[in-house]
Design a protein that fits this description.
Helix content: 40-55%
Distance between the termini: 44 Å
Strand content: 5-15%
Shape: globular
Length: 291
């Protein structure tokens, strides 16, 4: 079934569609939400985004699929682990076995041939921690709270160099993911994994490649960026909804999220979050004509 778009033309309509007690969300069993500042953006994990790859690793465009996993994704995670150790920071579910699994040669032997199974469960907590502190990964961020998703869509508009036509919040009922035969895996982790994860009521989706990609498969970010969307588009029983709102409402949307106790300060509970909240509040006033 194709992705279903639900356009709204006012903040009240947008809010009512996403209300947990409204008729739309209320009929779902276990909905999750993802806010995006531009409704035209596909559902693409950051490690597979072309802008991220070109910024940090131009050569990956020429590499094999499995080389991307080893030379780009493992390298970023390995460096993050190194600097966390340098600062004496705790890693969730750390153990001698985990350290062995992060060894370059162990990792290459395991994933360098066909990439099957990457990332496996023992890496989830560590990758989630890295993602919530800015490292590009294969995890696609979602939240169990629609207001959190609304905040992120508004925040991305406010921080964009040029505002898009519409922002969006994606909605998926996770009970329907079983119809995708394991191609899209839901990952829930303890709140102790990361303060940000707990504050954002975060969960993740991972797109599992259906077949062995092999060393001969050339990596193409262009080919992978729409892969999650394609899963929904080709499914008869699992629907993704995209609720859109004109982006000029982003400032008012941020104010409304703030009234419900959701802001950068609550979602990033440290001094950086407080500073971000203060700046976004000013930008929201400017966009809304209240400054």
């Amino acid at each position: 079934m194709p992705i279903k778009e639900i356009p709204t033309n006012s903040l009240d309509d947008f809010w009512n569609v996403l209300s947990p007690i409204g008729s739309f969300i209320g009929e779902m069993h276990n909905p999750i939400f993802r806010g995006q500042g531009d409704s035209t953006w596909p559902l693409t994990p950051s490690a597979l985004r072309e802008d991220i790859i070109s910024k940090y690793c131009n050569a990956c465009k020429k590499n094999r699929y499995t080389d991307h996993i080893v030379s780009f994704e493992h390298a970023l995670l390995s460096d993050f682990l190194y600097y966390a150790d340098e600062m004496g920071l705790m890693i969730p579910r750390d153990s001698p076995e985990f350290r062995k699994s992060m060894d370059f040669f162990e990792f290459t032997d395991r994933y360098g041939e066909d990439g099957v199974g990457w990332p496996s469960a023992e890496y989830f907590s560590f990758i989630a921690l890295a993602q919530h502190h800015g490292i590009p990964t294969r995890l696609l961020d979602w939240t169990r709270n629609p207001i959190v998703a609304g905040y992120f869509s508004a925040s991305q508009v406010l921080n964009a160099e040029q505002a898009p036509e519409n922002l969006s919040v994606w909605v998926v009922d996770t009970d329907e993911l079983r119809h995708l035969n394991g191609a899209l895996e839901l990952v829930r982790l303890p709140g102790s994994t990361s303060q940000n994860l707990a504050a954002q009521k975060g969960v993740f989706l991972i797109h599992r490649q259906p077949n062995c990609m092999g060393r001969s498969t050339v990596f193409s970010s262009e080919g992978l960026k729409n892969s999650v969307n394609k899963l929904f588009e080709e499914s008869n029983d699992c629907t993704a909804y995209k609720v859109t709102l004109p982006s000029h409402f982003a400032g008012e949307l941020l104010f409304r999220c703030h009234k419900f106790g959701i802001s950068a300060a609550t979602l990033f509970p440290d001094f950086d979050g407080a500073a971000r909240a203060a700046l976004e509040f000013k930008m929201a006033k400017k966009l809304s004509g209240k400054l």
